[in-house]
Amino acid sequence: MKILSKINRRIAIASLFALGASLVGGVAAAEKIKVAAIYTLPVEQQWISRIHKALNAAQDRGEIEYLYSENVANNDYERVMREYAEQGQQLIVGEVFGLERAARKVAKDYQDTAFLMGSSFGPVAPNFSVFDNWIHEPSYLSGIVAGSMTESNVIGMVGGYAIPEVNRLMHAFMDGAREVNPDVKFMVNFIDSWYDPPKAKESAFAMMDAGADIMYAERFGVSDAAVERGVKAIGNVIDTAADYPDTILASALWHMEATIDKAISNVADGRFEAADYGQYSFMAYGGGSLVLDSSLVPADVVELVTARETEINDGLFRVNVNDARPVSDN
Questions:
Q1: Which of 234, 245, 299, 316 could form a disulfide with 311 if both were Cys (CB 3.0 to 4.6 A apart)?
Q2: Strands 248-254 and 214-217
């Protein structure tokens, strides 16, 4: 009996140690990554909204604690970055177009913090990673829709700023349209603002007056003009079809989840390092997709788009990347 009692005590003690270890492991596994985001525009703005949506999804899954600041001026961005780093945020997400040097300086000063920033330039070791909305593939597909459906052979395009991130999407769209319609002509204008719907709307009206019967709505305001004039539009980054009934033929969508989830996973595993996360916006990773309205787009055009989409996903067709400023046809 004494021998059995000692054995039972040893088993009980071992079980307690095992339970304790599992509880510790459970706590560690349950720890949430602290993530902060810094946005220069409201979270409702289409580009920003994609990042915000992905981070909210991760928070809803219980993986992160998420804080954010919106409408941060460029001259205040560095201060906000430093404050979040000082607070112990493990991952800081944002967009640093126009303030690259300041942002990279902060990252260098806080090398234990992971930074994931929208940027036109490359990563910097050990902790400054970059991303971009590489949705040139679905943009090309949306161009096929527009090129197939224009009757005037004139398409209007209104963009924010002529930066690589915008230029490459416009060029991909134009290439897609030209694939199916060599006679199509483009009118291109940049309003030099990320958010000025009245100015974008005014530019769109001018293009419609000049014969455009399909509008590429890179900025808010263009689709409003299309509705008023009864012409069709192509959306960008987000799906606004429900807001503009019988107007949006197709939209190239950006899904930031693949990028955000990869960064969070790397931070959690202690494997975050300076890298270019741009590839996670490709269609192959689920970072981009095309949505079209089959009630507005003819079946033969849908078939064309589907065939080309399959070739892209199978690696049999590569959409050209052109970062140069697009210009209007003469």
A1: 316
A2: unpaired
